[in-house]
Amino acid sequence: MSWTDERVELLKKMWGEGQSASQIAKELGGVTRNAVIGKVHRLGLSNRAAGASPAKSEPKEKPAPAPKAKPKPAPKTEPARPAPAPAAEAKPAVPARRQIIPAGQPLPPQPSANEISPEALAKVNEVEKKAKKLTLMELTEKTCKWPVGDPATEDFWFCGLPVEAGKPYCEAHVGVAFQPMSARRDRRR
Question: Which residues on neighbouring strands pair with residue 148, listed in sequence order?
Fold first, then answer.
């Protein structure tokens, strides 16, 4: 179906009469309601009055407007202050996203050693001496995926030791990555 001049003129006429897009599509045939709406938009035809009935083709007498009630004067009070949103109180604050560091730039300070238990830190240091030092392409579902070093340098590698069941890391790195919440809170105090 193509929009011939005759079909466009009929569309304009029916649109101006207040016909709905569905009625116009039915009258034109071979075109959908959405196609009619799109064509009306592309032609830049004005929007019709919001209260107009789409099936109106002849104007009818308007009913007498209902008498309007006078609004009561508002009691004088202090200027209104915006109330805090109750939803904001219920939700915890969302932490800001970390900035992405371009390759070759120094990394931001890493979590200090006092955030990791001394036992876990000692275990990690021992394990990293025995690590397989794999590249990203050498990792499998059975190798520890703990990253070591700066990814922007040649000295970057992954642990590569056997993983703990159901975890992405070896036993030592699981001890660092998955700490109980209370233990982390206690060390920060």
Answer: 157
